């Protein structure tokens, strides 16, 4: 079920054991087994080990336009919520993969949200620029205040689209003068 994750990590030259440098494989597996069985002390130790390695996972995404600190924060939250579901895993290896996958998914979701927000702001800036340019050109022609309806007609937009762009951009409608 998680074989695609293992393939990805191997392709990126990341061994799952690298996320637990302080423990040998058998000790790591034993710790995860106990955590899966509900041992709170083992769960806390496993949590601590993963917490130490979240920065390494975040660095996988550092060239994608987000601050590593923000990615780490998302990873910490995903780890905490994932650790509460570790008992559903069938083996320590699956539990380890499950937690790493949760961390990586959270970081990827954060990057996706950042991209959506960035695109929204770019689109808004483009709309504001179009409204500003149109209002300026109309003002130069008529030498008076320009209404959103006039701008909308010129841009082939609805007046509501013009008002929304102005509102989201923090521009007062009565400011549509030269």
Give an overview in words.
With 178 residues, the chain is mainly alpha-helical. The protein has two domains: 114 residues, no CATH class; 58 residues. It contains seven helices and no strands. The radius of gyration is 26 Å and the shape is rod-shaped. The termini are far apart.
β-strand number: 0
Helix fraction by DSSP (H/I, runs of at least 4): over 70%
**Largest sheet, strands/sense/barrel:** none
Gyration radius, in Å: 26 Å
State the helix count: 7
Overall tally of structural domains: 2
* Span of the ends, CA to CA: 63 Å
Order of helices and strands: HHHHHHH
- Tell me the strand percentage band: under 5%
Low-confidence spans: none
| Assembly state (oligomeric) | single chain
Structural class: mainly alpha
Brief summary:
The protein has helices at 3-11, 25-36, 40-59, 68-83, 92-142, 148-155, 159-168. The chain is mainly α and 178 residues long. Helix 2 packs across helix 5, helix 3 packs antiparallel against helix 4 and helix 5 (92-142) crosses helix 7.
């Amino acid at each position: 079920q998680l074989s695609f994750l293992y393939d990805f990590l191997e392709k990126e030259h990341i061994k799952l054991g690298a996320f637990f440098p302080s423990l040998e494989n058998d000790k790591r597996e034993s710790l995860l087994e106990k955590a899966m069985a509900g041992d709170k002390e083992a769960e806390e130790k496993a949590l601590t080990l993963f917490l130490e390695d979240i920065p390494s996972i975040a660095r996988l995404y550092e060239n994608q336009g987000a601050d590593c600190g923000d990615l780490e924060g998302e990873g910490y939250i995903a780890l905490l919520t994932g650790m509460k579901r570790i008992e559903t895993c069938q083996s320590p290896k699956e539990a380890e993969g499950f937690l790493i996958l949760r961390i990586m998914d959270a970081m990827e979701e954060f990057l996706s949200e950042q991209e959506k927000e960035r695109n929204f702001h770019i689109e808004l800036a483009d709309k504001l620029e179009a409204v500003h340019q149109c209002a300026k050109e109309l003002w130069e022609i008529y030498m008076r205040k320009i209404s959103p309806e006039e701008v909308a007609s010129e841009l082939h937009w609805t007046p509501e689209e013009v008002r929304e762009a102005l509102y989201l951009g923090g521009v007062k409608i009565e400011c549509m003068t030269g």
